[in-house]
Amino acid sequence: MHIVVCAKLVPDPEAAFSMFRIDGQARKVVPAPGLRWVMSPFDEQAVEAALRIREKRPGTRVSVMTLGAETARNALKHGLAMGADDGVLLADAAFEDGDSYTTALALSGAIRRLGGCDLVLTGRQAADGNAGVVGPGLAELLGVPLVSFARDVQAEGRTVRVERVLDDGTEVVEAPLPAVVTVSNELGAARAPSLRETLHAARKPVVAWSAADLGLPAGEIGAAGIRCVRERVFVPVKDGRCEMMEGASPEEQAAKLALRLREAKAI
Amino acid sequence: MSGALVIVELVQGRPAMASFELLGLARDVAAPTGGGVCALLFSADRAAAALLIARGADRVFAVGDPLAADYNSDTWLAYAERAVREAAPAVVLASHTTSGADLAPRLAFRLESAVATGCVSVAAEGGVLRFTRPCYGGNARETVSFRTLPAVATVRGGCHDAVPADPARQGGIVALNGGVPASRLRVVERRKENPQRARLEDARVIVAGGRGLNGPEGFRVLGELAEALGGVVGASRVPCDLGWCPPSLQIGLTGKTVHPDLYVAVGISGASHHLAGCGGARNIVAINTDPDAAIFRDARFGIVGDFQKVVPALVAEVRKLRAGC
Ligand SMILES: Cc1cc2nc3c(=O)[nH]c(=O)nc-3n(C[C@H](O)[C@H](O)[C@H](O)COP(=O)(O)OP(=O)(O)OC[C@H]3O[C@@H](n4cnc5c(N)ncnc54)[C@H](O)[C@@H]3O)c2cc1C
Ligand SMILES: Nc1ncnc2c1ncn2[C@@H]1O[C@H](COP(=O)(O)O)[C@@H](O)[C@H]1O
After folding, report:
1. Which CATH superfamily is domain B4-176 in?
2. What are the tens digits of pLDDT across the range A69-100?
3. Which of A45, A130, A192, B155 is least enclosed, having the fewest CB within 10 Å?
4. Is the ipTM reported for this complex over the cut 0.90?
5. Cβ of residue A132 lying under 6 Å from some atom of ligand 2
6. CB A6 near ligand 2, within 6 Å
């Protein structure tokens, strides 16, 4: 079977926010030049899910696909070093300043150009925008079923069997292939690239497609195609005043806190 | 297109508090569009529909289809699409839960429109609907508007007050039943947690633990504090990932959004990803060994100390106070 994992390169989501700056004019969050860029963590777990399927189903092909600037190639390199078989790079100025819709449209176009696939895996949400829209959007654009928030993904015959996280438990859902599955952190840690696969990765095939290669109308991609307009970005203000409970012992600190909470009518 | 459609979620057969909040929000944003408020209810129970009307719905689409009683992505989407075609709303609101976050983006694409997920506020200003949501792990917020209609959004709990129930309010009930394509999905098994356990989403007091608890045993100690305070236990992501507690306890950007009166964060560093889920608490208390932990920037009260000593002492103090009143 053929699995396509969609993966985005993002500024290190664990980095201190002092490494970012808000450009009010451009309505953008701008990472510092030295900041490390990584494959978005849930996307790494989506690659992991694909590799686990391949281990059980030899002959499975895992492609990693990314849309972004030329540097997004690093997301592909990482996925290939983890063990994916090949990569698809969608780097074209025409894709720039898009939104979830234009991104999903371009990715769906590239999946079609590949001749379709059996399973599309995405992260539950990208670690920069935190939207969680592209995965479900792909399911709609490709006209296939969606199963979101997967903690386990098994492919048996022409069926995908997903254990999905609920607010109050889990459920096991089966969908016919082809399908889109979004992966959540409950899947468990993604493997680190091995030395062997990293050395191998340089020789794995990567195709780069432009907007024209996907045959999408110019008005539907990048800034021209957006449906969602960002009007403002800002950092919420915190009052930052914390009253510290000082004391010679934990008992004293605890007694003070209990009293203050009573005064504040919190208990 | 005018007015709003609210997608209602049920908890043990009754509309969730978060759905009542959405009706309150819907009334605010529907008014300037000149339309009413519709609710989509996945139940034929007339008492549930009446509750929605009392809380602000003008019309309730009641889905009696037993195949839609529990969440099913395909089935709910099909009914939501039908309700949208009938009500022609300017905005569709769902809760930011695992079902809302699954359904809303699909619905937006199906309607050839757009969606904003995990919103903390929705406003109708001068005829423009604006949605504000956390991004960059909760460090920043963005305000967006759409070029297409209807706007679809998932909204975090506690972002708007529900309107008080008015049993005299009038509204209509429209039955929707069948006539939708069969779902491609088959739910093979559902493992729900003890439904008697108090829900984090509605809790007034939450005691949450993080990596600093150093193992599952720490959560037992936390449970005692929660019990003394009459609250429930929650967690940051780390203990959930490490299996110290169930994933359903996770609070944060990718976990639950909570808005208690009192939130006690124990052994939690205060990452923006965590605060995105609990920043709306009225009072945050932080207990942490590190005086420079970020959590103290968000807390109202703090104790620098080892939870193993501080928490039992606090349990004793709370019990003393409570016994005295
Ligand atoms: C895209 C993305 C989404 C995420 N979503 C979420 C989310 O929804 N929710 C979430 O919580 N996290 C989320 N995270 C993870 C988040 O970034 C942090 O890594 C996580 O919140 C840290 O958990 P913590 O505070 O428990 O652990 P740590 O950051 O390791 O902090 C442990 C704290 O315990 C203190 N401590 C140690 N020993 C003691 C002791 N004996 N007594 C008292 N204090 C002690 C330490 O001083 C420290 O401050 C997400 C991350 C990403 C990248
Ligand atoms: N530019 C991109 N390139 C490849 N995959 C993407 C891109 N943007 C989003 N995705 C995929 O869609 C998921 C959800 O993204 P989002 O809707 O932006 O939160 C991500 O976890 C990725 O798997």
Report:
1. HUPs (3.40.50.620)
2. 999 999 999 999 999 999 999 999 999 999 99
3. A192
4. yes
5. yes
6. yes
